[in-house]
Amino acid sequence: MNAPKNLTTRQFEVLAFCIKYVHSCHRFPTGDVVSECFGFKSTNAPVSHFKYLVTKGYLYAPTDENKRYMINWAQAKAVGLPYFVWHAADTNVKRGDLTRRQFDILCYCIDFFRKYQSVPTTRGGARGIGVTSNAGVKAHFGYLAAKGYLIRATHKGAKNRYRFDWEKVKALGLSHPVWHEGPLGPPVAENFEMLALEVLLNRDARVAAVENDMRRRFGAVFGEARKERGLSMREMAEEIGTSHSQVERVLHHEAGGSLSLRTLVRAADALGLIVEIDVRKRVQEEEL
What we know:
This protein is mainly alpha-helical. The chain has helices at 9-25, 31-38, 44-55, 73-78, 100-116, 134-146, 166-171, 194-201, 205-229, 233-240, 244-252, 261-271, 277-287, and strands spanning 59-60, 70-71, 83-87, 150-152, 162-164, 176-180.
């Protein structure tokens, strides 16, 4: 797939990744996700690419109402990339197995996705229809997930995030997006790190269990090192090169905090600690 004349190859790859991510995860990727996929060392790199894509008309910039970037689907279609086209609701819409409240919340989520290209979060995301507590939103989203209309995301960085099962939504006769591959096919460029994308999007339970076990072992190793050296958490954070709160999460949370395995390996190296070979092997496999 060749990049349009007004885009560099890397900008085109970032745009293609963002389109694939919105299609798979039903929200625009964060800068951290893009950095992990493409191996950017600077956190400013993905934001710079986003800004160039906004300037060239391929993305919409964040606003006070919507804090995320959004894809200009007309531009994506024009350069041969995949795109969404919305299908109108049927004249005979059914509630199916949903209560009136659940149905209203599902409709609200669909309208929200159509407007902002993301599913509302469980942190107050459905308050637009009168759900006033986070617990209430989580409960309703949980019911919709149990009945198959929403699917809880399992990939990295997607805590309390959901995506739609569009087939179930379509069966009710509600409005839904239709995905078109475009004349140039799927968004895969020559140097596009597809494996990294799959690692991000397809974290099944077995992989999650392995990672959590590794993080627990890191937490134990770091805890022993801290005691032996008599370091405070702040001193340990400075030595590793991360924040005090992250060190606290690594030491005390069952799953070892939210630091990536790659970062934990680098932290162990900074402290001169020996990490089991199988942990390093797992990280190397993720970096392929």
